[in-house]
Amino acid sequence: MKEILILGGGRVGSAIAYDLCTAYSVTVADINESTLKKLTQNYNVKTTQCDCSNSNELKEIIRTYDLIISAVPGFMGFETLKTIIENNKSVVDISFFPENALELNELAKQHNVTALVDFGVAPGLGNILFGHYDTLMDINSYECYVGGLPKEKTPPFQYKAPFSPIDVIEEYTRPARLFKNYKIITQDPLTDLEIIKFETNEDLEAFNTDGLRSLLFTMSHIPDMKEKTLRYPGHAELIQKLKNEGLFHPDVVKNTAEKLKKEWFLEEGEEEFTVMRIIIKSKKKNIQIDLYDEYHKKTKITSMARTTGYTCTAGANLLINKTFDKKGVFPPELVGKDVNSYQFIINYLKEREIILKTTNK
Fold first, then answer.
1. Contacts by 131-135 with C-beta closer than 8 Å and gap 24+?
2. What is the pLDDT of residues 202-245, one digit of tens each?
3. Of residues 96, 78, 77, the one with CA closest to residue 210
4. What is the pLDDT of residue 157?
5. pTM recorded for the entire structure
6. Is residue 282 packed enough to be buried (19+ CB in 10 Å), middle (13-18) or exposed (0-12)?
7. What is the CATH number of domain 3-120+306-355?
8. Residue 176: what are its φ and ψ, rounded to 5°?
9. Based on the number of CB atoms within 10 Å of its own CB, is 67 exposed (0-12), middle (13-18) or buried (19 or more)?
10. Domain locations in the chain?
11. Helix, strand or coil, per DSSP, at residue 309
């Protein structure tokens, strides 16, 4: 039986463990003992305590596994990925670090490994769809609108974080790169607000965030691309006030994140949803792809953990089954260009009740 090691046992790491543990031998590594204890109580997994930011510890712990999944916080993601590659292990990564993963492409080839990066929901599933349609039509523009929100709106933020608040704040502070007329342009995050209407829930506001990432380099033949984050109306204005007050300055951001952790904490069993809209335009037609997923009451797994985690586990299965066996660093849009890999991922998600609605306009 294949041995898989998951680095990080938070909500998404737990969903990944849940999905993989029936078919593979799964071990979860995390620095937090209570997180590991909870995992062993709920799922058929093994656990090991590890400080993944310590490269010596990490090298030792990954040594015996067939595949590594990195679900560590973004601030330590790049170095973690580099260490995994240097130690000759293939990996699926969802850590959403700020650095450019493509810089490790040659290193991965040298070590004869495959690294699937940004393999979550967005970046991730949206990119996979984009890559697939790029093989079918002459695309002029790509738009992605995505967010995870609680069903119950609690003032003042009307938001709960399905993952680490420090990573959410990173979305609000990192300059947003867009692609206009074949060029990268940079705008402030939280800007260019617009209201997006959805059939599945009330209208949401969209604002600039730095979500294009690898698309800026792998899809630079597309004239225009943008990605925006979705929240309840008024959220962006409130966050901007915190920024203006200096609460997201590097010297104090960890304290701010700790305080927001209490207000943004998503309680166990609290219902939330993930919504994503992809709009792909060409001269001949427009494609709109909508995803809406809710907290899964039967498994007690959040929608954000499901949509992120199960895209990741689909990628893990691609590597284990050698459906995708190219060597190097591959962001999801490049995997989506492979028709067999694309179809496998879509079917895999459908089996897990993650449904995409496609409309031609």
1. 131/219, 131/332, 131/333, 131/334, 131/335, 131/336, 131/337, 131/342, 132/336, 132/337, 132/339, 132/342, 133/280, 133/287, 134/219, 134/222, 134/333, 134/336, 134/337, 135/337, 135/339
2. 899 999 999 999 999 999 999 999 999 999 999 999 999 999 99
3. 96
4. 95
5. 0.95
6. middle
7. 3.40.50.720
8. -90, 120
9. buried
10. 3-120+306-355, 125-302
11. helix
Between CA 330 and CA 204 the distance in angstroms is 32
125-302 carries CATH number 3.50.30.80:
no
Alpha-helix residue ranges (DSSP H) falling in 69-104: 77-86
pLDDT in tens, 313-357: 999 999 999 999 999 999 999 999 999 999 999 999 999 999 999
Distance CA 19, CA 7 (A): 15
Query: What number of other Cβ atoms are within 10 A of residue 135's Cβ?
Result: 11
Query: Which phi-psi region, left, alpha or beta, contains residue 181 (left: φ > 0; alpha: ψ -120 to 50)?
Result: left
Q: How many whole angstroms separate alpha carbon 299 and alpha carbon 30?
A: 22
How far is residue 110's CA from residue 72's CA, in Å, rounded to a whole number? 24
What is the rounded distance in angstroms from the CA atom of residue 357 to the CA atom of residue 359?
7
